[in-house]
Design a protein that fits this description.
This protein has helices at about 1-10, 10-35, 35-50, 55-130. With about 130 residues, the chain is mainly α. The chain has a domain at about 60-130. Helix 2 (about 10-35) runs antiparallel to helix 3 (about 35-50). This is Leucine-rich single-pass membrane protein 1. It holds the Pfam family DUF4577. Keywords: Membrane, Transmembrane, Transmembrane helix. InterPro entries: DUF4577 (IPR028099).
Length: about 130
């Protein structure tokens, strides 16, 4: 007796169950036929509420746009990093040149000091003799 009352009270639930089973079989078939795009199809059906609207083209375009933007960002980042490395190397070379110049100038200054001391000694000796 309970069984007929359930069928009478829930005819819509039985129909919805059939639709759910059919949708599940369709999703399983899509997974088996094209596994790489299956996630996109399932996501689209979830986003559209299962109405079957075709948003695959826009989703693929969005992914392509994202991919192109990502690649361009990587290229620009690589170019900037390369430029910074180039500047660091150039700066190091300039610093090495400046350091070598300073060292040679220091040697020149030391030599000039020695010559100055020698001249002063010579002048002091010559003043004593006179």
């Amino acid at each position: 007796m309970e069984r007929p009352s359930l069928e009478i009270n829930l005819p819509d639930a039985h129909e919805e169950g059939k639709l759910y089973v059919v949708d599940s079989l369709n999703n399983l078939n899509k997974l088996n036929v094209c596994p790489e795009a299956s996630q996109h199809v399932l996501d689209e059906e979830e986003n559209t509420g299962g109405t079957g609207e075709n948003t695959g083209g826009s989703n693929i375009r969005n992914q392509c746009l994202f991919f192109v933007t990502f690649i361009l960002t990587l290229i620009v980042s690589l170019a900037l990093v390369s430029f910074v490395i180039f500047l660091i190397i150039q700066t190091r070379n300039e610093m090495d040149q400046i350091t070598s110049r300073l060292m040679s100038e220091k040697k020149n200054i030391e030599e000039l000091k020695k010559m100055n001391n020698m001249i002063l000694k010579h002048l002091n000796q010559s003043e004593i003799k006179e």
